[in-house]
Amino acid sequence: MAPRAIITGAAGLIGRYLVAAAPRWAPQWEVRGLTRAELDLTDHAAVASYFRMRTPDLVIHCAAISKPKECDRDPVRARRVNVEATAHLAALSQDIPFLFFSSDQVFDGRTGWYVETDPVTPINRYGETKAEAERIVLANPRHTVIRQALTAGISLTGDRSFVEEMRHSAARGHRLTLFTDEFRTPIPAGAVARAVWELVHRGQPGLYHLAGSERLSRYEIGEALARWYPELALCLQPGSVKDYDGPLRPPDLSMCCDKLQRTLSFPLSGLRGWLDFSDSCGPDPWDYPMDVEPASGSVLP
Fold first, then answer.
1. Strand, coil or helix: what is 103?
2. At a CB cut-off of 8 Å and minimum separation 6, what does 74 contact?
3. d(CA 262, CA 14)
4. In a domain, 281, yes or no
5. Do residues 176 and 235 touch, judged by C-beta distance below 8 A?
6. Which residues, 6 or more positions from 39, have their beta carbon under 8 angstroms from its beta carbon?
7. What element of type H or E holds 86?
8. pLDDT for 174-212, tens place per residue?
9. How many CB atoms lie under 10 A from the CB of residue 23?
10. I need a surface site. Which of 65, 90, 113, 149 has the fewest CB within 10 A?
C-alpha cells in the first residue's frame, strides 16, 4: 500500500497547491486533503477518531487563522486554532513526520533577512500564536516547522492570497496604498508546494525558512504584479508605513532561505524573476512547470 499523507487546510492557498502538486512531485504518496467543512480541527475527539481510521504516515498542517486582523478580533479562537489544534495534531503524529506551516510574522521586522537562529519576537497576536505553536512542534525531533513568506497564488475561494485581495480591490475601483518602506520576500505558491514535497523526500526535519530570493517593498510587489494584471496599474499609489495608524506592522520580514536551498534541487526564484518567466505557465502564473526553471530556463534533471 502507498504511504498515506494528510494535508490540513486543503481549501486554503498552500493546502490547495500541495494537494494539486502531489501527483507531480509526490506520486508515491496517497494524499488526502482535509478542509474545515470535512473535519473541525478544534474538535479533538473527532480528529483523534479520524487519525485512528486513516492511520497516516505523514501530516502536513497548513490550516490556520492566518490573517492578523482576525486574530486580533478573536484571540481566543485564534489560539484554539493556531496553537491548541496544532499541539493536538503534533501529539497524534508523535511517531511520524509532521510538517507545520508557521510564518515570517514571528519576527518584529526591525532587521530583515532573518535566518532560522534569529530570536523570535512577534509584535501581533497572529505571530504570537505561531511562535507558541512552533515551540510545541519542535519539541519532537521528528517534526518540522516551515516559516512561510508572503505567498502569491490562486485559491479555491478566491480570497486567500494577497494577489487576490489586490485584484478584488482594483475591481471595486479602490486605490491601493502600498508602502515603499515595508519589505517582504514573496514566493509563488507552486514553488512552496514543490519545495515542501522535496523536503518530505529528504527526510531532514527541523526549522526552515521558505521564501523568494528577492527582497521587495510592498509597492515594488504591486508594480511587479501590474505587469501580469494590468487592472492594478491605475490603482497603485505609494505610501509609508510611518503614516499607518492601524495595528503595528513589522517593517521588514525578509527571510534568508540558504538552509532550505541547500536541500532543494531547484532555485527559489524571486517574484519578479518568476513573473518574467510565467508566460509559459498557463492560466495560473503561480504554478511550477515540470520541465523548466524560472531562474535559468534549464531543463530539470
1. strand
2. none
3. 22
4. no
5. yes
6. 46, 47, 50
7. helix 85-92
8. 888 999 999 999 999 999 999 999 999 999 999 999 999
9. 10
10. 113
Concatenating the DSSP letter of every residue in 5-59 gives EEEE-TTSHHHHHHHHHHHHH-TTSEEEEE-TTT--TT-HHHHHHHHHHH--SEE
Give the closest residue to 202 by CA, choosing from 259, 284, 272.
259
Question: 1-15 pLDDT, tens per residue?
Answer: 899 999 999 999 999
The CATH number of the domain holding residue 80 is: 3.40.50.720
Question: Parallel, antiparallel, or unpaired: how do β-strands 4-8 and 30-34 relate?
Answer: parallel
Tens digit of pLDDT for each residue in 60-95? 999 999 989 899 999 999 999 999 999 999 999 999
Look at residue 56 and tell me whether its pLDDT is greater than 80. yes
CA 131 to chain CA centroid, nearest Å: 15
Domain that holds residue 68: 4-157+186-215+252-271
Tell me: the pLDDT tens digits for 127-183? Answer: 999 999 999 999 999 999 999 999 988 877 666 778 888 888 888 888 889 999 999
> Helical H runs in 183-299?
189-202, 218-228, 258-261, 271-277
Number of H helices, E strands in the chain: 11, 12
Could you tell me which residues are beta bridge partners of residue 65?
none
Q: For residues 48 and 51, what is the distance between their CA atoms, to the nearest angstrom?
A: 5
- Does residue 241 belong to any structural domain of this protein? no
Domain assignment present for 10? yes
Q: What total of structural domains would you count in the chain?
A: 1
CA-to-CA distance for 257 and 241, rounded, in angstroms? 26
Cα 113 to Cα 285: distance, rounded to the nearest angstrom? 26
Buried b (16+ CB within 10 A) or exposed e, 240-276: ebeeeeeeebbbbbbbbbeebbeebebebbbbbbbbe
